[in-house]
Amino acid sequence: MMDRIREIILDYVEAEPEQITESTSLRNDIGASSFDLMNIAMALEEEFGVSLPDSLLPKVKTVGDLVALINKNCA
Fold first, then answer.
1. Cα–Cα distance between 67 and 6 in angstroms, integer?
2. What is the pLDDT of residues 11-67, one digit of tens each?
3. Distance (Å, whole) CA 21 – CA 56
4. Fold of 2-74
5. What one-character-per-residue DSSP string does 9-63 give?
6. Helix, strand or coil for residue 72?
7. Domain locations in the chain?
8. Is 66 exposed, middle or buried (0-12, 13-18, 19+ CB in 10 A)?
9. Taking CA 20 as the corner, what is the angle to CA 10 and CA 71, rounded to the nearest 5 degrees?
10. In whole angstroms, what is the distance from residue 32 CA to residue 75 CA?
């Protein structure tokens, strides 16, 4: 799952694949904008067949937060 999440993130931000780990800050480490995060969330929803509530997106700070949110909404 992490590899696919990494690929999706790389579609929206300019970063090296090795920069994207679960501890990577989406805004501070790889410079994702709010627009990037919205697009990433929509792509993740489509890829994993989940619904990521817009109200929770502002709380997502790291790639690990995204993984946890996907896992929570897959259950």
1. 10
2. 999 999 999 999 999 999 999 999 999 999 999 999 999 999 888 888 999 999 999
3. 20
4. 1.10.1200
5. HHTTS---GGG--TT-BTTTTT---HHHHHHHHHHHHHHHT----GGGGGG--BH
6. helix
7. 2-74
8. buried
9. 90
10. 27
Q: Within the chain, what is the greatest distance between any pair of CA atoms?
A: 31
The two three-digit tokens of residue 41, written as one number: 């969330």
C-alpha angle 48-51-52 in degrees, rounded to nearest 5 = 100
Q: Residue 75 — pLDDT band, cuts 50, 70, 90?
A: low
- Tell me the whole-structure pTM to 2 decimals: 0.92
Q: In the Cβ-directed half-sphere of 27, how many Cα atoms lie within 13 Å? A: 10
* The predicted structure's pLDDT at residue 53: 86
